[in-house]
Amino acid sequence: MNPNRHILIIGNGIAGVTLARHIRKRDSSVKITLVSGESKYFFSRTALMYVFMGHMKFEHTQPYENFFWEKNRIDLKEGWVQSVDFDEKSLKLQSGESLFYDQLVIASGSKPNKFGWPGQDLKGVQGLYSKQDLELMEENTKEVKRAVIVGGGLIGIEMAEMLAYKKIPVTFLVRETSFWRNVLPKEESEMISKHVREHHIDLRLETELAEIIDDGNGKVKAVKTNHGEEIPCEFVGLTAGVTPNVDFLRNSKLEVNRGVVVNSKFETNIPDVYSIGDCAEFQVKPAADRKNIEQVWYTGRMHGETLALTLTGQATDYQAGVWFNSAKFLDVEYQTYGTVPADWKEEEFQSFYWEHPQKKVAFRMLMDTKGAIVGVNNFGFRLKHEFFDKAIKEKWTGQKVISSLRKANFDPEFFAPFYIEIQKAFLKEFGGDFKPEKRSFIQKLFGASV
Amino acid sequence: MKVIQKIGLFLFLIGLGVFTTIPFLGTYELNQEMVSANTKDIHQEKMLEILTPIYDQSYSSNFQFLSAFNQEFGNYNDALKAEGKWDEVIWDDYSFSLGKAALSSPVKDNPWLWMFLSIGLAVLGGLLYNLPKYKDEPEGIKNNGIFHSKMKNRGWLGMLTGSYLILFYVILYWFPAYLVNLVAMVDPLSMIFSGNPASQWFLYGFVYTLAIIVMGIRMFRKYRGNKYQQLRTASVMFFQTAFAFLIPEILVLLNQPYFDFKNIWPLDYDFFYSYQLDSFLSGGSVGMFMLIWGILLIIIGVPVFTYFFGKRWYCSWVCGCGGLAETVGDPYRQLSDKSVKSWKIERYLINGVLVLAVVMTILTIANYFSDFWLLGTVTNELHNFYGFAIGSAFAGVVGTGFYPFMGNRVWCRFGCPLAAYLGIVQRFKSRFRISTNGGQCISCGNCSTYCEMGIDVRWYAQRGQNIVRSSCVGCGVCSAVCPRGVLKLENGPEEGRINELPIIIGNDSVKINA
Ligand SMILES: Cc1cc2nc3c(=O)[nH]c(=O)nc-3n(C[C@H](O)[C@H](O)[C@H](O)COP(=O)(O)OP(=O)(O)OC[C@H]3O[C@@H](n4cnc5c(N)ncnc54)[C@H](O)[C@@H]3O)c2cc1C
Ligand code: SF4
Ligand code: SF4
């Protein structure tokens, strides 16, 4: 490999940026360029909602100070890539400028799904993915009496919270029988649905969007649901998932299906062209519980870490570790480790579920038929990643996990020891030869009640 | 805003308005008895003479009175200085005590009424404003709108507040004679606690303590559901009220030296000053106990507690400056600068102040025990300089006045020599760290934004590295605002505390770290 080769990365999201940083850590001579049309500097997409809600300014979402890039000799190029000439190894920006590369990495992320609803391009109708979307949303929500959000996923709930901040009444259309039921098991999903309603969000279950209605001036004035109901509104948020942002690569030599098709080394069908992050589609799923397209922050980062090894001379396959994820539903934090599907057959898994009688605190552990842990969901309290990564990898029995649950606790000091209640509930349901933990002196003294 | 909150805000503003107006009320008339009663024996004769022209004249405001007073007094001193008769110059400032004696005002006549109308209404209003906050909302911390606020994001309200605070501090430290009306107002209260009339410091301590209590109650509302925040807030409220405010006053009532048992050198920079040592050494067994207690805190208390709990045991659970920062200053915590550059400035400044305080103290002690043979009165000038530049200007004017400009921990971060000392222990020999939760960080930046010490918490969190920083005061807010449950303040074994080259778990493709 030419030590002075030019590695060009389309997209400065978490995938592209992690890749660039890790290449630089391992190789001080290659030339690295990050191209993006969205913003010159890397920012955290996950924090867009906090900018809208005034928790942060946009610059707070930038994880690295501006001097960082120059110091690490990572060139930043602002501009939209219009097309790539894979034979010439060059690409063309919208401004007309051409850039040449020796190795190309496509990390262009996603864009919001639009399923061809009538009226989906009206003014006041939008998704939320990019910085530009955020700016548009600020513009679009200036004079809104009611908003409708379509699609009950993580971005949908964030959008609902954002609108609630502006005191805009929200109607939330969700196709499933309860919130995020396609991912969460019934109990968890119902608990969160309840919490959503506590925030005065008008959650409409088993309801889909049929049509968005024009006010005659190209602006939305109402939506119609599949039940025929018309809901007047001046803003519609489309949050029914995302899809790879790869249209500029279609009709070229590159194999593109829903995303850019890659193997386990992120190689595409063209030599020296790779793809990572939200826009990459694996030919073969990285693991049984993974999807062909991985669309979260964490996987984007891991793709970047892994490809950096390959691009610096250590060819490496992407090996998915134990799955984990997290989110926050209004006030309720959620973490998950390992595999917990939305539904399962009784003969497949044993499930242990505990939920606090009043608070929005819950814990689920799935075990296989032999009693070994396969995954957990926790809500309203924090659990340690390291603990479950190990327990799941080493296939600890459910009993072992629960008996040492205190060590997995990651809640701040003086918080209520929910793990004791969980231990009691587990003993009651499954039995076991351990005793529930005792409240410590400090816990008793300061009355951290469960 | 609920109606009751609006009423609260209204009452608070009235109280603040009255408080601000009080110094301008009343008339001043000085007579000879007042001068005799309020001057030291060695100055009495001279002062009686100097002030003759203003006796029994009625002045209608503090400005007029003080300008007349300063003119006579200044003329006298200037003449001596011009002739080089330095030892005859009167260095003591009698303007405060004489002003207070000369004052007659409705406030002095009816102190309790005016206390209610000013401080009382402000406190009442503050409570009415804070208590109903977040009522009927689910538990959870809401930083909604902070950067859209004119108060909390350096808008005009913030600028105004900052300017008011700065002005208040400047007058309090250097022109207290203008505040005699306010001080006279709290006289009866001071009489109850210590049996003595109030000084400007009593007034300050009283207002300071009430501010911590009212804004502490705000903290209970804001961080409801977060036990760590609740407890540490209760703790600073307690230490301020009992240790910084009440106990020292009561000690004086019992004829013991004035002493704040939780104030530690070098924050308490005059602990080893000669007049302090004299008062300890002449204070019998209680005085001796205070001296030994103070020294034990410095050489054993600080290192041992910091080893086990990190500097937070002091900075965000006990300290009075910290107490104010964590309550009154909490709305401004997001204004601290997070850049690497300011981290650099911070290290030079704070350690510089520590060195200065240590050198000054060593010289002072050496001088004291050599019966002032070593340096004579040079240490006095050093004390004056330190007291002016660090004790008053930095800790007071900048430390608090700059809340709305640079965040609530400007003093603690850039200036406090005790924080520097605690920080060195925390960085190099402590069980405290902030652990990060594997790979869960989404780099959102909430933690860094709300770190009052300007620590870029995210920098560490996103690479799975523990946060071990000398400046961290362990306020726990980074952990509280993290939406992904990534941060945990912990005391644990020293082994593995500092992980310079972390691997973020969850990716099995990467076996070693780069
Ligand atoms: C509001 C929101 C909240 C989220 N919250 C979470 C969360 O809490 N946890 C989580 O795990 N995930 C979350 N996600 C998902 C996560 O942000 C994405 O999975 C992740 O950002 C994908 O990273 P990436 O690097 O693959 O792509 P992106 O971050 O999308 O970066 C791709 C970049 O490439 C640029 N680009 C694309 N095409 C071109 C072109 N032709 N020319 C030039 N530049 C181009 C894009 O403008 C973009 O800047 C959230 C997403 C959103 C939108
Ligand atoms: S607040 Fe939490 S998730 Fe956000 S950057 Fe900090 S540690 Fe990471
Ligand atoms: S790092 Fe966290 S605990 Fe430490 S001072 Fe900053 S916000 Fe407080």
TrEMBL record, chain A:
Residues 6-292 form the FAD/NAD(P)-binding domain. Keywords: FAD, Flavoprotein. Transmembrane segments: none annotated. The keyword DNA damage does not apply. The keyword Flavoprotein applies. Coiled coil: none annotated. Pfam families: Pyr_redox_2. Its cofactor is FAD. InterPro entries: FAD-bd_OxRdtase, FAD/NAD-bd_sf, FAD/NAD-binding_dom. It comes from the Bacteria. GO terms for molecular function: oxidoreductase activity. PANTHER family: NITRITE REDUCTASE [NAD(P)H], PYRIDINE NUCLEOTIDE-DISULFIDE OXIDOREDUCTASE DOMAIN-CONTAINING. Belongs to the FAD-dependent oxidoreductase family. This is Pyridine nucleotide-disulphide oxidoreductase. It comes from Algoriphagus zhangzhouensis.
TrEMBL record, chain B:
This is 4Fe-4S binding domain-containing protein. The chain crosses the membrane at residues 7-26, 112-131, 156-178, 198-217, 238-259, 279-308, 348-370, 385-405. The keyword Ribosomal protein does not apply. Pfam families: Fer4_5, Fer4_9. Keywords: 4Fe-4S, Electron transport, Iron, Iron-sulfur, Membrane, Metal-binding, Transmembrane, Transmembrane helix, Transport. Residues 432-460, 463-492 form the 4Fe-4S ferredoxin-type domain. It comes from the Bacteria. One of its GO terms (cellular component) is plasma membrane. GO terms for molecular function: 4 iron, 4 sulfur cluster binding; metal ion binding. The keyword Transmembrane helix applies.
